[in-house]
Amino acid sequence: MKRKLLIALSAAALLVVGLYGIALLLAHRMVDDQLEALVLSGTYEQADYASLWLLPTGTMQVSGLHVRQAGNELVINDIEVSDIDFMHQTPWHMTLSATGLYFPNGLPDLSGSGNPVMAKALDEFGADNTIPLQLQYSYHYTPTNSEQIVYNMSLTLPDWLELVVATETRNLALESLQAIRETEDPEVAALLQQSALAAASLPHAKLHLTDTGIVAKLTELMAQRLGTAPDALREQLKSQMQNYHLFLPASLQGLAMQAGNELALFIDGGKTLSLTITPAYDGKLEQLQPEVMGVVLTGNFDRAVELLQLQIRTE
């Protein structure tokens, strides 16, 4: 009896190891195919990775994702892909986390960009040719609910900022988006995209930017360059934002005044700036497009605010 049990347990262990080996092989193949497609499409000249592991939960861990294009190289230190839908060729849901951007040839040189403050800021938060960026992205597709796709993205730069974006689309099939991405002919891709967007809707979109140090640090860098005190510069910037609407056309002054007041509050530091849109017509792009074009032609920007239901708030 004991021998039979031992044989059964050994067989079960071999089966588990075999299934894990197959799953790991499929994971490698899936990632390799995606990277190969990026190279073949011309997005990158080279795309590979140092290692890939598959956890028992189905989570994939990729380290050292290395891409190169036009002499520029970038390595994403660690990537974790979880909540993967393996039941469909184009997964209906997935979550991706990435940490650390490493530049083998040194951090991007922004000295000639015309923005010396941002060049200095890059030197401040980059160390050892690495930007300690943390990114999390997820989507969930529900085809039975008007082909709803819910997207969520968060980006964190420690001691600088946190950015959160959430959007929803409807009547835009995930398979259609994948087909557009895989289309090599740019003209054909443009036609497919135009056709897909004609029936799509964007019911809402939200953006939240939280200051965890960026306001104080950028103000200090700007003050150093201008030879003034950070507090004096902060008050000057707030005044400019609160009065900027006076130099704009009347149809823009209402929105500009609100935005200026909220931005002035944000510059006080330690606050969250939120931008929300809930467009008219339930966000149906086919109905919104001609009205938005009319706003551009007539300059009636008050109507644009009505169409987009734009809200700006600082808390």
Q: Which percent band covers the strand fraction?
A: 25-35%
User: What is the number of beta strands?
Assistant: 11
* Order of SSEs: HEEEEEHEEEHHEHHHEHHE
Q: How helix-rich are the residues, as a percent range? A: 40-55%
Number of helices: 9
The quaternary structure here is single chain
The gross shape turns out to be globular
Any overview of this molecule?
- This protein is an alpha+beta fold and 315 residues long.
- The chain has a domain at 1-142.
- It is 43% helix and 29% strand.
- It has helices at 2-40, 116-125, 174-182, 186-198, 214-226, 230-243, 250-266, 285-298, 301-308, and strands at residues 46-48, 51-54, 60-69, 72-82, 93-102, 130-142, 148-157, 161-170, 201-211, 272-277, 311-314.
- Strands 1, 2, 3, 4, 5, 6, 7, 8, 9, 10 and 11 form an eleven-stranded antiparallel beta sheet that branches.
